[in-house]
Amino acid sequence: MVLRGKVYKVVSICILLAGIVVLGLSLKLPFGSFSHPKAGFVPTVFSVIWVFLAAISCVLELRKPDKTPDGFKDIDWKKWFMYIAICVVYLILLHIAGYLVSTFICLVAMIKMAGYGSLRKSIVISLIFTVLVYLLFAYAMNISLPKPFFM
Amino acid sequence: MLDSLILLGQGFIASLTPINLLAAFCGVLIGTLIGILPGLGISGTVAILLPISYGMNPLTAIVLIAGVYYGAQYGGAITSVLVNMPGEATSIVTCFDGFPLAQKGQGGKALAVSAIASFVGSIIGLVGMTFCATQLARIALSFGKGEFFAIVVFGLLLLTNLSGKNRLKGIIVVCIGVLVGCIGIDELFGTLRFTFGVVDLYKGIEFVTFIMGVYGITELMTAICTKEEHVELTEFTMKDQYPDRKEMKEISGAMIRGSLVGFFVGLVPGAGATISSFAAYGFEKSYSKHPEKFGTGCLQGVAAPEASNNSAIYAGMVPLLSLGLPFTSSMAMLMSAFIVHGITPGPLFIAEHPDLFWGLIASMFIGNIMLLIINLPLVGLWASLLKVDFSILMPIITFITFTGGYAINNNLFDIGVMIVCGILGFFLRATGYNMAALAVGMFLSGTLEDALAGTMSLYHGNLFAMLGDRPIAAVIMAVCLIVVLLSSGKSIKKYISAKGKA
Known about the structure:
The complex is a heterodimer. Chain A is an all-alpha fold. Chain A has helices at 2-5, 7-28, 41-63, 77-113, 119-140. Chain A starts with a helix and ends in an 11-residue tail after the last helix. By secondary structure, chain B is mainly alpha-helical. Chain B has a domain at 2-143 and 242-412. Chain B is 75% helix and 1% strand. Chain B is built from 22 helices and two strands. In chain B, strands 1-2 form a two-stranded antiparallel sheet. Chain B is globular, with a radius of gyration of 23 Å. The chains are: A mainly alpha, B mainly alpha.
């Protein structure tokens, strides 16, 4: 809860730190010269601008009082973490169980997480959707969707 | 002139095939749908549709995807009028008078005026776009890397100044976007950049995957995780609600003025349809003999912004089609659609692909007629879509997005990129970073690097020599300098006055 008020500050610090890391990586690339720029030229120029402006932005944000962003006021954070968790589990499951099984399981989980009441209807909707999308992509568009690891 | 009309005629012949008519219909239908449903944006939807269009011929695919853009403008107004909640940011202004009209029991009339004004704005915008794009493309044939560099800098600068609340954050995300675009093997020098030894990053991050993450997943995540709001739909009827002759006479001037303001404001890189609609509303209010009526339910207050935002959409296509430079995220997505189908918009596009250019223009005329037909009598059906259960719809769209993202390269790594981009987009957007600047910065990264490195090499590192040699580039850079000085002066003045108050 306390952290939510500091989001502006945390994000601006993270952006500054990321900029410093990217600048460090850019400096390792061959810069060339102004008359013969090489692969590191554009990354270095833009990461210098990034770090310089992010430092100003960071100072300005740190001097402001804590404030919760408007976009965060109505967010149900439990649902947010569950949404991310389902997405990550889906990505892992795709490698193991393939498209059909993992999409079906994760879609049921997400529909329930989003607050839909009936489990039976969630299962039926997920099953119909998964099969239809599989048929559309695999047969109509000829795209090879992930298969289970044993196939 | 006659040549253009003959080519337009050929465009109509190409567009009137059953498959292209179906594509235009599906595009405008999907566009209207996403315009109505808050939480689903144009860029995210096009990113999802793009893989589905792979098997189509280029004209059919472009007709389908372009249909989503102009269709969404029509749909956005429906929620503005009936729920006081714009489906798209471009329809915010329509709420000002549309919702009071609905509260007075004239919701049907407001929707009819909105659809007619959208149609008029689209037709005027289309005519303007056709003229400007063909002329600019002709001029742009003489452009070198210096001019392209100046135009990209100018566009990005205006984008950060006009479309976000915080200019500083806008420039930061442009830099982030440009650097994200640098990931992978550098096309000019063959050097690996920011790949960390990950083979999947050698090809760089796909723009469509990136957009699916920062727009699609971020929007879906926000829609699913936001505490439920009950949508109060205002009662309305279309019976006897079409504007009469007197009202049509009153709004016809507003529609034409709105369309012209929208088109000219829309031509400014980064201004987009939202700013155009505000400008048209302000202009109409100052022009009106009864400005006090604006905001209380005045038909001109609906007609002007709706004509304007539709007209601006086509103005935004001028730099895309004639220079190959998109200055809004949705235009960058449209350009991706062209590139995916092997076409590169730019000065030679109209000359080399007249069939595609004129086919697209003709399909837009047809699509707008379809929109007028499906919007006027079916508005009740569209409004009822607001009652669809989001707890089913949003998860389904999430998994379509993932499937579409995977289909681009048949690579599970891209789904991981989308999840990471979705989380980053969620925090950046909430804290006031301009997502359009991020997307356009990434898209133009390659063009910017090519133009900058090319100019530096050509003029031996002396940019002033380039400005002396290329007068058009010099003028554009001078305007950039004026914009920087004006915006910096404004910021410093604001800071000093805030400090004075403290």
